[in-house]
Amino acid sequence: MPKFLFASIFARTSRAIGLRLLALSLGLLIFVVTGHAEDVLRIPYSSDIGSLDPDNGFEVAGLTTLDSVYEGLVKYEAGSTKIAGLLAKSWEVSGDGLAYTFHLVDGVKFHDGTDLNADAVVTSFKRRRDGGLVQNYTLANMADIAAPDASTVVITLHHTQPSFMDSLASPWGPKVISPGALSDHAKGDLATGWLTDHAVGTGPFKLAEFKRGERYVLERNANYWGAKTFFGKVEFLVIPDIGQQILKLKAGEIDAVPANFPFAQLSSLPADLQITSAPSMTQYEAFIKPGSPLDDAEVRKAVLTAINPNLWASDAFGQYAHVSKSLYPNIMLDPGQPVQFPADIEAAKSAIARHGAVTLSIGLYSANPSYGRIADLMIAGLSLIGVQATSHIMPPGAAYAMKGDPAAPDMLLIIASPDAAHPDNQAKAFFTKDAPLNLYGRALPDADALVAEGASKADIGARNALYEKAGQMYFDAGHFIPLVDVDDVVVHRTGLKDLGLRPVFPRGSIDFSSVRR
Fold this sequence. Notes:
By secondary structure, this protein is of the alpha+beta class. 30% of the residues lie in helices and 21% in strands. α11 (369-384) links the parallel β14 (358-364) and β15.
């Protein structure tokens, strides 16, 4: 071999080896400096996980964990309300709207190594519907479920329900649990005790560690049927204080603050932090107590003038707030005629002066600082027209005992977000007479009748027109006041991307199967 060729090969080989050693050294340096491997994602939880049983809780704190280890038949696409297949690769709906036939993905295994088949889906769905569990309402309309073969599931409804697919796609929708785990840990309680802190699903991650109140760990499912996750491990630390979360993020001890980062601080982040935001169904509304001063139409018009969200939305949330167009989140329903707030401040002053002294109490559903910021801005606006208003944080759970209580606040500030992207899930959760979150027990039969009619409409245009009309009637009656829709805002280490935020999920619900750096 000529000496010059040998020298060239030797130089290139040495350079390649040197680059590999340099890369390895840098990787070790990153590990030493940051204290974690690059394939570990560290996320704080503001509150503890209640239960990982997907059928027996309305988990919010640990929803991202639950939805990383379990999967349903369908899901919402990232950044959208469009429904896509998950464990079901395709489906058909019968002409009468009563039968839904799902065809399962091939080659899916549970974390315990057993195969997914149609019988497993039947077992899980019947457990949710028939077990007297918290989430049974999502399948209340399921008359029957059958497995004609190993890869086909047929669900038959009692009556047509155009929102059914949304109920399946909901983050709280039915998941498929390993039938072996259910059988092995039944203990006479449908395995609810064991599934509180254990999980056996088909998801991209497995539950590796559960230390209540301290730490939770997910590990990559090496046998996952779908795309391999970027991160091999996700670690969760329970850090209730948002200030502590921010300090740990800036110190490099965690990788993101998923929610509740103060909006006033978003414009002054250090260079190693960045923001990912996306449309959300986080809608702030005001619920009005029967018998409050707002029962007077003239007073209500004056108050609406003073609390008009167009006056304060940007002050409270900067660029991340969008004035609500109706009683439904903007991304769910785009109304033909948005609700209108009066704007004549002088007329509002005159109305209050004619009426005499008006005082209002405003209850804040929780200690979420955004409630306080909104209340302060509304109180300032009310003072300009001569209305004296005060606000206070409601004790935990107190909002659910306000119905018929004369001491309840005149107005309640609350996030009225639905559990699925269909307007029926919004109206029947908050506005109709028997809605579980109609916290003052307001009733407007004519509007409720429109909601009932809308629930049967498969045509989206006809459906939305009915829900919009009903929402306008609730607003005109002074029962519920839409204020602002606020984006999902996650502050994280620079370089994280593809967070997979979904409008229906609670704020900060990162999709750990898609996120990478």
